[in-house]
Prior knowledge:
By secondary structure, the chain is mainly α. Among the domains are: 82-227, Alpha-Beta Complex (set domain protein methyltransferase, domain 1), CATH 3.90.1410; 294-437, set domain protein methyltransferase, domain 2 (Alpha-Beta Complex), CATH 3.90.1420. 49% of the residues lie in helices and 11% in strands. It is built from 17 helices and 13 strands. It has helices spanning 2-22, 30-41, 84-88, 93-98, 105-119, 126-129, 144-147, 152-178, 187-190, 193-206, 276-283, 299-303, 313-322, 338-347, 357-361, 368-402, 407-437; strands at residues 24-25, 49-54, 58-63, 72-77, 207-209, 225-227, 235-236, 242-247, 252-257, 268-269, 295-296, 330-332, 335-336. The strands form five sheets. The chain has a three-stranded antiparallel β-sheet, with helices on one face. A hairpin with a 3-residue loop joins β2 (49-54) and β3 (58-63). α5 (105-119) packs across α10, α14 (338-347) packs across α16 (368-402) and α16 (368-402) runs antiparallel to α17 (407-437). The longest helix has 35 residues, at 368-402. The model is unreliable at 1-6 and 13-20 (pLDDT under 50). One of its GO terms (biological process) is methylation. It is found in: Cytoplasm, Cytosol; Nucleus.
Amino acid sequence: MKKSRGRAGRRRRRKHLEGFMDGVNCSHKLEYIKLKKWLKDRGFEDSNLRPAEFWDTGRGLMTTKALQVRDLIISLPEKCLLTTDTVLSSCLGEYIMKWKPPVSPLIALCTFLIAEKHAGEKSVWKPYLDVLPKAYTCPVCMEHDVVSLLPEPLRKKAQEQRTTVHELYTSSKAFFSSLQPLFAENTETIFNYSALEWAWCTINTRTIYMKHSQRKCFSFEPDVYALAPYLDLLNHSPNVQVKAAFNERRRSYEIWTNSQCKKYEEVFICYGPHDNQKLLLEYGFVAVDNPHSSVYVSSDTLLKYFPPLDKQRHAKISILKDHGFLENLTFGWDGPSWRLLTALKLLSLGADEFTCWRRTLLGDVISARNEQQTLSVTEKICHFLIEETQHVLLQISQLKRNKENLKNQLALVEALRLEDLKILEKSAKILCNMNVST
């Protein structure tokens, strides 16, 4: 008896440890029970996926059986998807159809989410709304102090994103007011800026791509969004491959895996070959050891190391600009990109070599001096970016101590900058070896 109890105890302990290592099953939580029942009523058959909390990725889905290549991960019936069709068949439909100029599919979905959230218990979509994030970590939601710590190209895009959402809000105010007959409360308090920001982030970070035919009641912006309850709990990994599409015959959105996954492990999908700046901007997270990540070199940093008195400087900048060589200049895990080196080679051309600029853009070696100067400047830029990144990381650690309320936002920027530092340090080693061989 004792022996079997010991074995059972060991089994329980092993099961507990496995659960701790992989993820903590959250199926028993009321919000997930309600969501699963709601989905089942709409034709969703329970798969091998369970909601779970993972120490590195947070909330996600784990599999209760090993997945093989070409296995179906999930099949979500059309009735479970939230699209513009859903919006048009709601009480908002008649207001959208008569509004001129027509609203965009994006605004229609945002309006629906805000209205349903406001409806609370009365909303048919409540079980889904209850599991949506209450707040988002995209740069559009970040405090100014945190945005200023982002790398320059991302900081610029974050500001553009914020402007987009502000303009969307301002241009939609009149439409929101037209919905007043549907609400007892003033529409200005329901459809305020923070409500729109939350709805916009929900759509931007969670929708799957699903093309709908163009309809007259909407503006010409593409109608390609669908919110997919439960399916949207699947997290991203750059190291997996999946096939995802709407199955017209079965009228369901399906995801098939092209990678293996062990029992009780987190199931990942891939949102695309995005670098960390894109992942943070669009989805509000950073992937560790992301093979697609790179550190961008701004044109200001690029030109800092070339004499302003160079008579051909202006002509060189014009050539780089005309041929698209002032953007997407990067350091990656395999060192400086070909584009970065080509831009630096052209800027390093001597007065007697300038006529060879076309050959430079084709990748030809112009002279040993040109090659050596290019490597030397590349190293200087790399070390400058290392120092700049270390300085920002120091600022972040100080802010984390002083601003408790910004801890989550700062942790994300820190993760991004630490990844940048790893890439730059690896590039510095590669450049050092290149210099030795030259």
